[in-house]
Amino acid sequence: MRPSVLITVGATLLVHLAMEAGQSDNKPANAKPSLDRAEIEKWIDRLADPEFRIREEAQEKLRSFGVEVIPFLEEALAKNPDANVQRHLKELLSRFNTIPTLAPTRVRLQLKQVTLRETVQALSQATGYRFELPPAPDSADTRVVYDWNWQDATFWEALHELCTKAGVSYLEGWYSQDGKTIRLEPGESHPTFTSLQGPFRVSVVGFHYNRSVSFLSGPTRWNAASTVQRNEALSINLRVTVEPRYAFTGIRDVLVEEAVDDAGSSRVLPRNNMDERFSGYYYGGGRMYQQQVSAPLLPGKLGGKLKVLRGQIGAMVVAAERPVITIETTASAKPQRLEKNGVTLHVEEVRDDGQSVQVRLRVSRVGEPNRHDPNWVHTVPQRVKIHDAKGTELRSGGAMSWTTNADSAEGTLVFYREDGNAAPGLGIGRILGGKPKSEPVKLVYCEWDIVPTQIPFTFRDVPLP
Fold first, then answer.
1. How many Å apart are CA 358 and CA 215, to the nearest integer?
2. What totals of helices (H) and strands (E) does the chain contain, helices first?
3. Are 407 and 373 within one domain?
4. 37 within 8 A of 137, measured Cβ to Cβ
5. Which end of the chain is least crowded, N or C, by CB within 10 Å?
């Protein structure tokens, strides 16, 4: 019998992101985070501005830098004598000290002479994530064995080596309905340039290059100096992904700090005053695991390579999920109302047909949390969970109807039992196809700990268009 030896399996969570500097070609590069001292100090100075709007903007901007800004805040607190600035700095530091840290899942795993399927089973045990691997008939390919030696590797490092060595790819940014399942597919993925940083993975999707000429301008009898308008633009497209234990609620614009081509020319586009302001979301609201973003670069000579491309992507990340309100109810129960920590949950009606549970409810939240989480009302359907009498979490089917205003949301949410109708599709036929039930269910409303962070990236020798 072929030996299959599992020496050690373990997963640990560290409290900081510690990675080494980048690699070349299409291998993952580990980016080193960096913050601009002058920019940080500019926003700290604005904490003393007499205008409330500017002070608020400065606080929001400093929060967006994530935990890496803490040393700058502590230094300013020790040096700045302004009482108002010190008060704002203490508030910021207090907020950073109470939020969870975005630590990557760590893998300590040694395997000898194991197949791909055995490797996936061990990696699932080590990370707590489920893996989907399509069934395959017994063949020489399925009997190929591998040796693995992951010593304190991050989840992304281990997954990258697995895909590269075993010739499989994974469906990026899709973690199934449960948010914890990685789907692997046979066949190698396309070569790409990847930067791994803790729980984040940034990859280059490609470049977009455009040249145009407009004849709506040009020399005339009255303006001989006018010229034909010529435009040239270059941008790079990136995809940023987070591992399943976290989620994004918003991605901000990309800041390119260094872009040098093989002729030694900088391709960094100069930033104007608007670019220095707090930029908006690419996407804001519910949980997501990946987002594609782009950044403009200076056009130049066609062809060649970017010898180095370095920058940061601002993101808002769900670092933890905390149950706040729990209500036990049945389909025959009367309406219930519960308030806790500034959140009011009113369950108006519960319907249970044996295959799905429909809950008509209203949730409201007022006060300080809403000011820092304006998209809260749009995330309520993802914050509500249903557990059956056995403690199994039902799969969310989203909202059948949903209305929101500034501080409340109401409508009907649908949840499906996995042991219900096996027919595909989640339409009205499935909702009405089961038998009425009155089993007790537990409804849980969760709050999210949302952490602002900067995701550094570094790429080398990326071909230009």
1. 60
2. 10, 21
3. yes
4. no
5. N
Query: Which pLDDT tens digit goes with each residue over 232-247?
Result: 999 999 999 999 889 9
The pLDDT value recorded for residue 233 is: 92
Q: Give the pair of three-digit tokens for residue 16.
A: 């900081």
C-alpha–C-alpha distance, residues 427 and 432, integer Å: 9
For β-strands 130-132 and 181-186, DSSP reports them as: parallel
Statement to judge: residues 365 and 294 lie in one domain: no
Residue 215, C-beta contacts closer than 8 angstroms, at least 6 positions apart: 228
Q: Closest by alpha carbon to 166, among 215, 209, 114?
A: 114
Whether residue 360 contacts residue 381, with contact meaning beta carbons closer than 8 Å, is answered with: no
Q: Do residue 210 and residue 313 come from a single domain?
A: yes
How does pLDDT run across 375-412, given as a tens digit for each residue?
788 889 999 999 988 888 898 888 888 898 888 899 99
Domain of residue 180: give its range: 5-17+103-191
Q: How many domains does the chain have?
A: 3
Q: Where are the beta strands (DSSP E) in 14-125?
A: 29-30, 105-114
Q: Are residues 287 and 410 in the same domain?
A: no
Q: 201-236 in b/e burial notation, b at 16+ Cβ within 10 A?
A: bbbbeebeeeeeeeeeeeeeeeeeeeeeeeeeebbb
In a domain, 70, yes or no: no
d(CA 10, CA 123): 9
Residues 424/427/433/439 CA torsion (nearest 10 deg): 100
> Same domain for 279 and 212?
yes
